[in-house]
Amino acid sequence: MIDKHTKELEYLLNNFWCLKDQNPSLYWEIKNNLDYYKDFVQTKLGSVLIVNDRLIKLEKIPTIPKAYMGINAFGQPLEYVLLFLILLFLEDKPKSKQFILSNLIDFIDNTARGLELDHLPDWNIYQHRKCLVNVMHHLEDMGIIKVVDEIYNFSEDKQAEGLYESTGISNYYIRRFQNNILNYETIEDYLNDEYTKYTDKDIKRMKIYRNLLYSLVIYPEELTEFEWDYLRKFRGTISNELSKYTDGELEITKNMALLLFPMEGRQSYDFPNSKAICDIILLINNYLLELVDKGELQLNQQEIIVISEEYFKRIIKEVRNESGLYFSKYYKDLSFTSFYQDIVECMQEYDFLKINDLEVKIYPMVSKLIGYIPQDPLQQLDLFGGNYE
Fold this sequence. Notes:
This protein is mainly alpha-helical. It is about 45% helix and about 10% strand. The protein contains 15 helices and 11 strands. The protein has helices at about 5-15, 25-30, 35-45, 75-90, 100-115, 125-140, 185-190, 200-215, 225-235, 235-245, 275-295, 310-325, 330-335, 335-350, 375-385, and strands at about 20, 50, 55-60, 100, 145-150, 160-165, 250, 255-260, 305-310, 355, 360. The protein starts with a helix and ends in a 6-residue tail after the last helix.
């Protein structure tokens, strides 16, 4: 039976933060037992643990940025721009301070122009108004704002008004930086910011643990030779440490490393999730393995399949032709071009493959997650009943 305190740490790993107002009992459980895992968080992960009278937050800064680490509800760069502008607006708004939507929009317009941003909102465009609505919903879901009175939908009418309330925690949404970020020019500058106070030995150890806990899978090509050798050489020690503080099981092969969690302990961004396209990809993964077993696809020394994109398109067509009966109406009606694009984007996002110069590299993670068509077609139709947004 997994230790209760481990479940508390897994909550911090799987969630952005724990808010006292939303979940007071869990907040106090985590706070009262911080000593159990504080040393692991600080020495092994090197991560910041924020604890105050409003929230507890584990800063989960990855070593290798991945697409699935973004905000799932966002699909446009403008949404991220609006998010940061709204956080600027909320910066001096204390708890319970109310504001109206039109004042927020005026602030966004003036600040965006003043900063000469590349992405400027145009409220005459429906998609831009919808982006703002999506961001406001995200901030509400995160507990950063409350909706007091939303008269009608801004996405439908740019004259719409609304009354909102700050909860006073917006300043904790963005991570704290050790240095002046105005001097940063690359992603690596931001990633390495918090390592400035550690030795090289500490940094290497922290990156190994972060890779395992903050990523779905890691491949040798993503690590330095030292990091991969360290991971393999000390796999027993690392496994024991992780099993003490999480419910994950470490698996290391010669070509990948990952931490496998039971369903209830999975990360919120894990694959598969509630999106129906995940079910289709599970079938594609299974089909790819069948082709390997038949000798129609070959593995290289790194157990990676390398094929042309044209061949990969034929494979996707075959899966759709064979299993399309079980897809939802959404995917049945989708053109093949759009269907293929959705599949590729999702498979690349979750590290199943990469496409470069019309060449497809299919990674070993495919073999870990596969799906089958049950004999009962009604069961499968229900399986493919996920979220298509």
